[in-house]
Amino acid sequence: MTTTDNHTAHGVSLQVKGLRKSFDGQEVIKGIDFEVKPGEIFVIMGPSGSGKSVLLKHLIGLEAPDAGEILVNGEPVASGEIAAKFRVALVFQSGALLNSLTVGENVGLYLREHRLKPPEEIDRIVAEKLEAVGLKDTMDKMPSDLSGGMKKRVAIARALVIEPQLIFYDEPTSELDPLSSVVVGDEILHLNQRTGVTSLIVSHDRDLAFGIASRIAVIAEGRILTIGTPEQVKQNANPLVQKFLNADFKRKNENE
Amino acid sequence: MFKNVGEIVLLYWNTLLALPFAWRHRQKVFEQFFEIGNASLLMVCLLSFFIGAVIALQTGPVLVERSLGSAVGGVVGIAIAKELAPVMMAILIAGRIGSAMAAEIGSMRVYQEIDALRTMNIDPIQYLVLPRLLAMAAALPLLVIFSILVGWFGGAVVAEANSHMGIPYETFFSDLRSIVDTGDVANGVFKSFCFANIIGVISCHQGLVTLGGPRGIGRSVTKAVVNSIVVIVIFDYILTRILLK
């Protein structure tokens, strides 16, 4: 990690140009271009299998594209380099907490492994971040003792510790009840307002997207269908976009 | 297969390059070391005693019959120190510890914990592979020294108690000392150090390349153990040939 201090984050810009990726001859990402401005909450929405998760893996450097490039603050970032060049955090869909470590050890892992702070300072930061996500009494618990929503909030706390310039969320509200979804959504929003971090969320949760996004991109079959503010996306005439945004249960429509 | 061999060699090389960071991870090395010792000591003791006993039982009566009773201690001593203790302990540790390493790292891979480490710019080789390999390389030779001593004792007990031999302890160990020297024990310990590296790197590699869910983890565990044993047996011949006086 080139940046060794742990100061307040300032968002960076993210640009994706002509990104393409195939697996076993099947093209999953078919030329994606978009830009996320510093400090923005950018939500990528789309149905399951639309290429959202593959796109996210490229952005975080866990996959290398066949073509195209990713620029952070205008600087091209090769696959796998992004975490070394910028303070980047990813909140995994599952939380991806290390099951052999306690919640406190998970949250403090980044600081401890990079030796950024003395142990007492790490304990203080961990307690502070856990309190920020409403989990101050869970420090000594194991991840297996937590519910799905709590795991996600711990994962957010772990991301907060990095003081990221860019934070990715993979389906942050999936498998959560509506109340927990709101708590997690509020947390993302507060973090963004407090630190100015650039946030990119991959989700198919329409409530979350229209509730907190600065801009939304709708992706289907490996292509971006539309990008705009929540209002612009709502008004987009593309039938696939409308079908995705207005999907609802049949019986409810019949009753109406 | 060649891809796997290439990946394993590369992983081993990258782990060696991470050696300067070993002190930083000493706590994890110690935890793994304790885990290996704790999980294996009793088993090593039991296995070694009976290996020594059975070697004495197989060779002793034949040698005594031909008036070569003074060679029993030496035969048991050499067989255990140079061959049986290092190989049998390596196979035991591959099954007991290598499988656990492959399962743990494999499960971390499947449940995205390794991806999480990468996104925090924490090198999985430094964090996961290096401590395990170091602990294994330190623990197996120590277990083998222990195994040699227990194996000799097992042989001595049978040599004394068996009616076809009846060799007293003093005679057994004096014969053993006249044939087995420190170099022979060092030979076995060196082999075990090589086997420890083989088990460590193969098991960690299998964990890191695990795909799929629980079935993938199961497959990795089986592969880690089977591949480790096959490579240990092949390297046993190569090392024996190289170390032959």
Task: Describe the model.
The complex is a heterodimer of chains A (256) and B (245). With 256 residues, chain A is an alpha/beta fold. Chain A has helices at residues 52-60, 82-85, 103-113, 119-132, 148-161, 178-195, 206-212, 230-235, 239-246, 250-255; strands at 14-23, 26-36, 41-45, 67-72, 75-76, 88-91, 166-170, 198-203, 215-220, 223-228. Helices cover 38% and strands 24% of the residues of chain A. In chain A, helix 5 runs parallel beside helix 6 (178-195). Chain B is built from 8 helices and no strands. In chain B, helix 3 (72-110) packs antiparallel against helix 8 (214-243). At the A-B interface, strand 6 and helix 3 of A face helix 3 and helix 4 of B.
The total count of strands of chain B amounts to: 0
Low-confidence regions of chain A = 1-9
| CATH fold description of the largest domain in chain A | Rossmann fold
Biggest sheet character of chain B: none
Instruction: Please identify the structural class of chain A as seen in this structure.
Output: alpha/beta
Give a count of the beta strands of chain A, DSSP E runs of length 2 or more.
10
Which bin fits the share of residues in helices of chain B? Answer: over 70%
